[in-house]
Amino acid sequence: MTAIRASELRDSPDPKSSVRTVVYRTERSDTQRHPSWNTCDIEERRQLKMPPRFKLLSTTRIVVNIAVLVLTAVAFATPAAASASSTPRDLSTVVADQARGNTDAACHPNVYIYSRDNNRYVSAEIFYDGDDYGMLRARADAVGPWERFTVCFQDWYWTIQSQANDLFVSAELGYSDEDHAMLRARAGVIGPWERFTINVNGCGSGCTTIVSQANDRIVSAEMFYDDEDYGMLRARATAVGPWERFFVSL
Q: For residues 240 and 218, is the Cβ–Cβ distance under 8 A?
């Protein structure tokens, strides 16, 4: 019976050599280990060709450099894409940037509107039906699909478009009583009822007001309405009070 007892790895005396010597030591013995029999060591030497160290280091450097270039490209590309496609911005900030000329874009997606009075985000009620479909209400605790709007500046007026149904917000001047001038995301084209004036700092520092150009009235969030009408936006105020203030600090 032959069993491997030990092995050792020896470097070549020449430090530049890529050859190493492996020494295998084996032991031959009988399983009964008869005392009269001798054991002997057999030393076998083999030479293994090892890859040069400098080649390994060069390959490693190339791989690392490629990884760094890829990560750098992703780092520069990702924030811009995320900002343009998904990052929500407050209406006040967008209007202020446009007024200062800090942006060339006529349209700004992923804009949310926030009521300063009840600290709620404005939603477009897509699941409402009939004459209430798309009603704007200040009632959400967080920004979701119904709370995102695209606002566009058209020389002398702004439009507000719901990203939930791609329809423009109208001030319903044909409605009567407590629904008069309700804001709804329901128009496919821009007409007089879909044009607004948005005034940043119109009610103090960082406070924004929205005015319908169709009736020259300030948009209010109706906090005294209840149930499914709570927080309804209507273009009906002639002066700025708590319900006409829209603001959020980023």
A: yes
Q: Which of 229, 201, 245 has the alpha carbon at shortest distance from 99? A: 201
Q: How many residues does the chain have?
A: 250
Please name every residue paired with 209 in a beta bridge, in sequence order, or none if there are none. Answer: 199
- What's CA 40's distance to the chain center, in Å? 72
Residue 165: which of 142, 190, 147 has the closest Cα? 147
Tokens of 243: 């319900």
Residues of the chain where predicted confidence (pLDDT) is lower than 70: 1-86, 92, 99, 102-105, 248-250
In sequence order, which ranges of the chain are alpha helices (DSSP H)?
53-85, 91-100
Whole-number pLDDT of residue 172:
98
Burial readout 206-231 (b: 16 or more C-beta within 10 A, e: otherwise): bbbbbbbbbeebbbbbbbeeeeebbb
